[in-house]
């Protein structure tokens, strides 16, 4: 299938130029199983500086595989068969992510781009305190950072995600699930990356905690201006928090557009089906959700659409 994503839409509603921080071009990821599974096929997207880009789609459509591949966290049997991932550093340099050496990749992750994945709270080391884990990550990237600054920065990131800095001395088992997930988000923010990829970061949490953390993420993005790729199968949630949404189906990005436009004028039949499958919605964009889906806006050929 031909994929004609258009990248000339990098303009804000007022016509001003929008800066790209990450460009993914025609990325294809194959699991070399028997038979091989093409989990991501020719995926292309542009992430704008400071935006929240939602990535939606049903279970198994390839969201996690795409997220891991962007960050080169994929493991065999997954293999990037083709494509490009370019990080447009705020310092002016373009970084070819797929060409980074292992050493360069270690420096790149956390510092430029960080990831919070589903159940990340279980990734905290159970036998070391929050303080030690934040310190180790900081010092791995900023060797020689004075102790006072390590302490100060660690306390600051915890405060930012709504965790009392007195928790620095806690072990993970002494924290609730919500708090542990907040600590992971703090860890992801520690080095002030320009991009955070969040893969179902709140799915394991109860709805109230989930909402609190999401509110926090949106607030932090407003304050600190990092860009987020936010992955979930929960389209109503994405409609509330995202600036733009990409919809994946069977490994392909079938539609990409501004969240409200996508809600009101979903072009792809699958997006409309996805929208129609949620019984009720609430929140900022909830007002116009479920007011009816525009059946007339579908493209005749089902091609990929990108609208700013
Ligand atoms: N190790 C593997 N070997 C073979 N196929 C795999 C492997 N891991 C994932 N897949 C396949 O790749 C496809 C995409 O999986 P992926 O986990 O990326 O989807 P997803 O959209 O993130 O799903 P979910 O929302 O359930 O996490 C699925 O068809 C899955 O079966």
UniProtKB/TrEMBL annotation:
Indicate the secretion signal residues: none
Q: State what protein this is by name.
A: ABC transporter ATP-binding protein
Question: Membrane topology for this entry?
Answer: Peripheral membrane protein
Q: Please list the GO terms describing molecular function.
A: ATP binding; ATP hydrolysis activity
Q: What is the lineage of its organism?
A: Bacteria, Bacillati, Actinomycetota, Actinomycetes, Micromonosporales
Domain ABC transporter per the UniProt entry, residue ranges: 22-275
InterPro entries per record: AAA+_ATPase, ABC_Ni/Peptide_Import, ABC_transporter-like_ATP-bd, ABC_transporter-like_CS, P-loop_NTPase
Q: Where in the cell is it found?
A: Cell membrane
CDD domains found in the cross-reference section: ABC_NikE_OppD_transporters
A Gene Ontology cellular component where this protein is annotated is: plasma membrane
Q: Which UniProt keywords apply?
A: ATP-binding, Cell inner membrane, Cell membrane, Membrane, Nucleotide-binding, Translocase, Transport
Q: Does the keyword ATP-binding apply?
A: yes
> Organism's domain of life?
Bacteria
> Into which family does the record put it?
Belongs to the ABC transporter superfamily.
Entry keyword Transferase: no
């Amino acid at each position: 299938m031909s994929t004609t994503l258009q990248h000339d839409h990098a303009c804000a509603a007022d016509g001003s130029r929008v800066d790209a921080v990450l460009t993914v071009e025609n990325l294809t990821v194959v699991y070399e199983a028997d038979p091989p599974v093409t989990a991501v096929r020719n995926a292309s997207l542009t992430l704008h500086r400071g935006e929240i880009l939602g990535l939606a789609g049903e279970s198994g459509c390839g969201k996690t595989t795409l997220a891991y591949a962007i960050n080169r966290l994929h493991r065999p049997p997954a293999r990037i068969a083709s494509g490009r991932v370019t990080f447009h550093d705020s310092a002016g340099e373009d970084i070819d992510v797929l060409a980074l050496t292992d050493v360069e990749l270690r420096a790149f992750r956390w510092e430029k781009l960080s990831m919070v994945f589903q159940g990340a709270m279980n990734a905290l080391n159970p036998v070391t305190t929050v303080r030690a884990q934040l310190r180790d990550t900081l010092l791995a990237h900023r060797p020689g950072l004075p102790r006072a600054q390590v302490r100060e920065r660690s306390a600051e990131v915890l405060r930012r995600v709504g965790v009392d800095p007195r928790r620095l001395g806690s072990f993970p088992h002494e924290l609730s699930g919500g708090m542990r997930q907040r600590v992971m988000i703090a860890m992801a923010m520690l080095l002030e990356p320009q991009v955070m990829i969040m893969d179902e970061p709140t799915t394991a949490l109860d709805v109230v905690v989930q909402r609190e953390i999401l509110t926090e993420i949106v607030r932090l993005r407003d304050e600190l201006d990092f860009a987020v790729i936010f992955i979930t199968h929960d389209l109503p949630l994405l409609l509330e928090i995202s600036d733009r949404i990409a919809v994946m189906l069977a490994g392909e990005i079938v539609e990409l557009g501004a969240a409200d436009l996508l809600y009101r004028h979903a072009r792809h039949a699958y997006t409309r089906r996805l929208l129609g499958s949620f019984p009720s919605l609430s929140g900022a964009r909830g007002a116009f959700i479920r007011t009816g889906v525009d059946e007339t806006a579908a493209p005749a050929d089902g091609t990929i659409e990108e609208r700013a």
